[in-house]
TrEMBL record:
The lineage of its organism: Bacteria, Bacillati, Actinomycetota, Actinomycetes, Propionibacteriales. CDD domains: fer2 (cd00207). PANTHER family: OXIDOREDUCTASE WITH IRON-SULFUR SUBUNIT, OXIDOREDUCTASE, IRON-SULPHUR BINDING SUBUNIT-RELATED-RELATED. Keywords: 2Fe-2S, Iron, Iron-sulfur, Metal-binding, Oxidoreductase. Residues 3-79 form the 2Fe-2S ferredoxin-type domain. The keyword Signal does not apply. Pathway: Alkaloid degradation; nicotine degradation. PROSITE patterns: 2FE2S_FER_1 (PS00197), 2FE2S_FER_2 (PS51085). This is 2Fe-2S iron-sulfur cluster binding domain-containing protein.
Length: 171
């Protein structure tokens, strides 16, 4: 069975027809040509397919496209604007937070979503005081990004990039 979907991806509206079993990742890559979300593990364990939907992280390899009909999705490609790179993208460059770059789009989207979650006061496993907004310690950042793997091991620089963007208050 197939369904017609309306998706807004990186500010551009699309109408597509997909098999109801199509993942959001496959709809983005195969039907819309978006190459920012990557197919890594295809089991929701590596985070390379992460995008933002309403400022929330979505692991697209685990999400059926039909569940996102009418959604507004932002991939790492849609983060930059006329005035340049998104602050998180710039922080990743400034802190040399990537090596091969395969996981980087998912890492960046996840980091932006994670900062929004922290700003909303959502605790993580390592949050010390549940009555206050979490402070973004290295441990807090690592815990919140633990669903995003970097096979090259650029974690120290990824944490530094997230801290830079958070400190600038522009992420």
């Amino acid at each position: 069975m197939e369904s017609k979907l309306a998706l807004t991806v990186d500010g551009e509206e699309h109408a597509i027809v997909v098999d109801n079993r199509t993942t959001l990742l496959d709809a983005l890559r195969d039907h819309l040509g978006s190459t920012a979300p990557k197919k890594g593990c295809d089991h929701g364990q590596c985070g390379s397919c992460t995008v933002l939907e309403d400022d929330r992280r979505v692991t697209t390899c685990l999400s059926l496209a039909v569940a996102h009909d009418g959604a507004s999705i932002v991939t790492a490609s849609g983060l930059s604007g006329d005035d340049g790179l998104h602050p998180m993208q710039q922080a990743f460059i400034d802190q040399d937070a990537f090596q091969c770059g395969y996981c980087t789009p998912g890492q960046i989207c996840s980091a932006i979503g994670m900062l929004a979650e922290a700003a909303d006061g959502s605790p993580s496993f390592v949050t010390d005081d549940l009555a206050e907004a979490p402070s973004l310690t290295d441990a807090e950042i690592r815990e919140r990004l633990s669903g995003n793997l970097c096979r090259c091991g650029a974690y120290v620089n990824i944490v530094a990039a997230v801290k830079q963007a958070a400190e600038e208050g522009t992420a």
